[in-house]
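Feature request, filed as a ticket because there's no other form

It would be nice if the structure record came with a short human-readable summary line next to the C-alpha cells. Right now we just get the raw output. Example of a typical job, pasted below so the devs can see what we mean:
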Amino acid sequence: QLVESGGGSVQAGGSLRLSCEAPGYTFSSCVGWFRQAPGKKREEIATIDIDGSIIYSPSVKGRFTISRDVAKKTLYLQMNNLKPEDTAQYYCAASRFEASNCYEFTQSDFWGQGTQVTVS
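Raw output as currently delivered:
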C-alpha cells in the first residue's frame, strides 16, 4: 500500500514536497510520480529505475526532484517554482514486479490514493 501526503494549495512560484510511504515495499523496482489534471490524461512526471537512474518529464525537468529513502521506504517529490499548470492530483506508483526496470505502469501496479496540488 502506498500513501501520499504533502499536497496543498500554493501560489505560483512556491514549493511543495510530496511524500509517498510504502511500508510493504522494498524499492527494488521502478518507482515514480504521476499526475492527472481534470479532463486530461495521466502524465508520468518522474521515475527512478532499479539502477537509480532518473527520468523527468520535460514539463517538470529543472523544477521537480524525485528521490527515495530506501531505509524509510519513502519516495519524495520536491516541487519548486510551481506553476498553475502543475495543478493536478498527484500519485506515486511502484512496479508490481521484483527487480524490474521501468515500463509503462498500468492499474495492475501499486498506486497511492493521490494527493491534490493546487497552484494559483
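Something like this underneath would help us a lot:
The mean pLDDT is 95.
The chain has no helices and eleven strands.
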